[in-house]
């Protein structure tokens, strides 16, 4: 919809950060942006650095994510650099139980910094760092050596990111009219409308069919962004 952007990330790969930055530039070409929906649903994660880069696009400063572990050099911190690419435009991040790992890092960072509203269902809860340790030339063992934590110190592992607004994923279904209801047009001898209105009715029906197939969570996110803009001073 005009003035409201939508970016979906299916997986975090090495080039995801620059790609999202480019997508923001494309949105800005169409005029001022009033809100953005970042869709991380069913995103299984991917490259940690990509998650850090995407988070950094929307944060002015501060911690993005950190790790704590049991072995030497397992502790890491990642912080944001100055500059919010959207200049504090309202954001909603969509998540669900299929959002894991890097997706949860982004959602957790934006939630803790109050930069975005998280909408959907609780995420998967994969917040562990795994390290491959060689045993011999042909054998190795993979161990969980550290855990990811959000800026406020919340562990992602097995807990996930709980959304600010809980909305189950569903579709909007048009409710069928009551078969026993009677309107003026159903009465014998009612006045006919001009043919032009028949075309208008067809257009309205087509719009309703399109709405019926709309993603409910996405629709709720858009309504939320519009409400934020209405209430903004």
From TrEMBL:
<dbReference type="InterPro" id="IPR029045">
    <property type="entry name" value="ClpP/crotonase-like_dom_sf"/>
</dbReference>
<dbReference type="InterPro" id="IPR005151">
    <property type="entry name" value="Tail-specific_protease"/>
</dbReference>
<keyword id="KW-0378">Hydrolase</keyword>
<keyword id="KW-0720">Serine protease</keyword>
<keyword id="KW-0645">Protease</keyword>
<protein>
    <recommendedName>
        <fullName>Tail specific protease domain-containing protein</fullName>
    </recommendedName>
</protein>
<feature type="domain" description="Tail specific protease">
    <location>
        <begin position="3"/>
        <end position="168"/>
    </location>
</feature>
<feature type="region of interest" description="Disordered">
    <location>
        <begin position="183"/>
        <end position="209"/>
    </location>
</feature>
<dbReference type="GO" id="GO:0008236">
    <property type="term" value="F:serine-type peptidase activity"/>
</dbReference>
<dbReference type="GO" id="GO:0030288">
    <property type="term" value="C:outer membrane-bounded periplasmic space"/>
</dbReference>
<dbReference type="Pfam" id="PF03572">
    <property type="entry name" value="Peptidase_S41"/>
</dbReference>
<dbReference type="InterPro" id="IPR004447">
    <property type="entry name" value="Peptidase_S41A"/>
</dbReference>
<dbReference type="GO" id="GO:0006508">
    <property type="term" value="P:proteolysis"/>
</dbReference>
<dbReference type="GO" id="GO:0007165">
    <property type="term" value="P:signal transduction"/>
</dbReference>
<dbReference type="GO" id="GO:0004175">
    <property type="term" value="F:endopeptidase activity"/>
</dbReference>
